[in-house]
Specification:
Number of helices: 0
Helix content: under 10%
Radius of gyration: 13 Å
Mean pLDDT: 96
Structural class: mainly beta
Strand content: over 45%
């Protein structure tokens, strides 16, 4: 049974950085992908990036490219989302999602993923 737990969400000021984590259990190999998504109140869920854990290659949509970085600690089975230069419009609940995959991840389409965490809230406000 695959299980994902997000952590690290917080209240930060504009311009600050924050790292949130996704702790994964239930996979017995590194052939899976993790996607990060966010959903703000009244808005649709939006992809902010993904990583294929077996090769460590991350992909980002234009909205987060250059500000967000995704990395994976394969031994600990934790995937990190490092967010920089945060803006009020980054305020949302951030979710990680997982599916089995070899060398590919999907940064935009949430339905590609099979398993989801419960989310961690990030608020950017002065």
């Amino acid at each position: 049974q695959v299980h994902l737990v997000e952590s690290g969400g917080d209240l930060v000021q504009p311009g600050e950085s924050l790292r949130v984590s996704c702790t994964i259990s239930g996979y017995n190999s590194h052939y899976y992908a993790i996607g990060w998504f966010r959903q703000a109140p009244g808005k649709e869920r939006e992809g902010v990036g993904c990583i294929s854990v077996d090769d460590g290659i991350a992909v980002y949509p234009d909205s987060t490219k250059g500000r967000f970085t995704i990395s994976a600690d394969r031994a600990k089975m934790i995937v990190y989302l490092q967010m920089g230069s945060l803006r009020p419009e980054d305020t949302a609940v951030y979710y990680c999602a997982a599916t089995q995959s070899v060398g590919y991840c999907e940064s935009k389409v949430s339905s590609w993923y099979d398993h989801w965490g419960q989310g961690t809230p990030v608020t950017v406000s002065s």
